[in-house]
C-alpha cells in the first residue's frame, strides 16, 4: 500500500512538474534546463518505489508493472505533456504520407523512400480513413508514451526468456526504459517495426526454443552444442514447454506475419532481425531455420522487387560504402560531436550513457557466466545487430538504431551485475546499488533524450504559420525552408515542391548565408520562403550558420527586390520571392 | 480463468461487430475508440484465445507464498499473450491496408469489415475448440 502510494505521488509530482515547465527556458542542453527540481524528486521517488517493490519478500508483478508505468510516464511522456505537439519534423512528414495514402489510396514511389515501404503509413491511412479522423496530430503527439506503453508486455515477455528469474526480467525492462534515450518512439515506422521485432523475438524464444537439428549429427553441430552448453549450461532449459502442433503452426504463421508487416513498413528493422534470428538458430534457441531464411528472402526481395524505384536510384547510397567499418562508426560519431558547446555536452552524455550500458552488460555477462546462470542468449542478441555496421551508415543514424536494437538484451545483462540468481529480493545493499545505477541512468537520459529539445519541439505559432502558408500558396508552388527543421508536410505532401537551403547539421566554419540560393530556386516561377524559430534554434545549436545569421538573413534578404513579407507571428515569418516568369 | 476468457471474447466480438457500421458513420471519438481498438488488438486477441501458449518451462518460481505452478505459469505467459495479441492485430491491419494500396482497391470500410470477419471467425473457432464446459481446463 505504501509503495502504491509512493508510485501515485511520483506520478502526480512528475506530471505537475512537467506541466509547470517554462518552455522559454529550454536551451542548448534541452529540457533539463527548464524542469523544476520537483521533476528529479519525482524520478527518484519512482526509482525508489520500483527498487523497494523488487526487494519485497513476495514477488508482486502488478505493483512492479505499476512502478514501471509510472517511470515511463515521467521519463518518456515529457514531449506531449510539456509541448502538446509532436516532436521532430519527421513526425509531421509521416502524418503527411499517411494523409496522402488515406485520401488517394495510392502510392507515389517516385516521391521518396517512404512510399517504397508503405506498411506503417497504410496502417495510419486506414485508421484515418475508417474513423473519419483526418487529423492524426493528437496520435502523433502522444505516440512516444503510447509506443513505450505498448512495448512493456513484449519487453517483459522477452526478458523472461533471457533471464533466470522474474525479478531479473522486471529489472531488465526497467533498465531498458531508463537507458532508452534514442527517441525513436515517435509516430514512425521504426518505432512500430521495433515493437513487432521485440514481440517476434519473444515469441520465438518462448515457443520455438531448441536446436533445429540433432546435435550429434556431425562435427559442426557437435561443436556448436558443446560450446553453447559449456558457455551457458542453462540454454537448453530457457524456452517454454512446446505448444500443441496446431498452435505451433499458428504461432509460426503469426511470426511470418510479423516479419511481413515489419518488412513492408521499415527499411532497416527486418535486416536487424536477420542476424538476431541467425545467432539464435546457431545457439540452440530457435529450432525453425525457415524463419531466418524467410527474413532474408522478405527483406531482400522487398528491396529489389517492391522498392525497385528506390533500389535502382540509390545503389551508390546503399552499397557505395560497404565494408567501411571505420567510416560507419568513428566517422559518424566524429561528425556528431559538433555544434555549440551545449550540444557537444549532450552528445558526450549520450556517448557516456551508451558506454555505461555496454560496460554493465559486459560485466553482467561475465558474472553470469561465472555463476553459470542464463546470459548467452542475451549476449548474442545484444551483439547480433552490430553485424550490420559494415553495410552502410544509414544516413549517419545506424549506431543509434543498433543501440536501440541491442538495448532489450543489454539491459537484461546489465541487471545481472546486481540481482542474484535465487528467488526473493536482492537485499538492501544490492537494492541500494540498483537505485544508484538507476539514478545515474535516469539523470543522463533526461539530458540525452531531451537534449535537442530546443530544436525538436515546435509551437502552435509555427503550425499556424505553416497553415497560413498552405492557405496562400497555390498547389505546385516551390516552398523553401532556410534550415531543414520545419513542422510541415503533414498535409499537401505531394502538392508542393519542398526545398531546404541548409540541412540541420553542424557546419564548422560556415560562412554567412546569402540570398542567392533562395533567389536561384525562385528564379523561374517564384517561391515561398519560411523561417521559423525552430530553424533559428537548430542553426544556433548545431552551428549550421554563424550565430544570429538567420536574423541577419531575414533582415537583409527580406528587403531585397522581389522579396515581400506575407505574414509573420511569434513562430516565424513567410516571404514570397518573385520569379522572373509569371510572378507567382 | 475460463470466465475471463469468455468475457474477453464477448468484448472483442462486440468491438468487431460495432466497428463495421462505425466505419461508415458515427461520432469521430467513438469511431476512433472502437476501430482503433479493433486494429490494435481485435484479431490478435481472438487468435490468442484460440491457441494455448505453452506453460513456463524452467522459469524461476519466485512466489514466497508458494501459490502454485498454475498461477506462476499464467503470470509467465500473460505478457507474451498480450504481446502477440497486439502485434498480430497491428500486423494484420498493416498487411490488409498495404495489400489494398498495392491492389489499388483502397476502401477503409472494407478493410474494417475484413478485420471484423477474421476476428469473429477466430472467436467462433476458439469457442468451438475450448467450449465453456471445459472451464477448468484453461
From TrEMBL, chain A:
Lineage: superkingdom: Bacteria
Record's keyword terms, sorted: Membrane, Transmembrane, Transmembrane helix
Taxonomic source organism: Arthrobacter globiformis (strain ATCC 8010 / DSM 20124 / JCM 1332 / NBRC 12137 / NCIMB 8907 / NRRL B-2979 / 168)
The keyword Transmembrane belongs to this UniProt entry's keyword annotation: yes
Keyword rRNA-binding set for record: no
Transmembrane annotation, as ranges: 36-54, 61-78, 145-163, 194-213, 249-282, 291-311, 345-366, 373-392, 398-419, 431-451
Protein name: Uncharacterized protein
Automatic annotation (TrEMBL), chain B:
Keywords: Membrane, Transmembrane, Transmembrane helix
Membrane-crossing residue ranges in chain numbering: 7-26, 32-51, 80-103, 109-127
Domain of life: Bacteria
Descriptive protein name: DUF1616 domain-containing protein
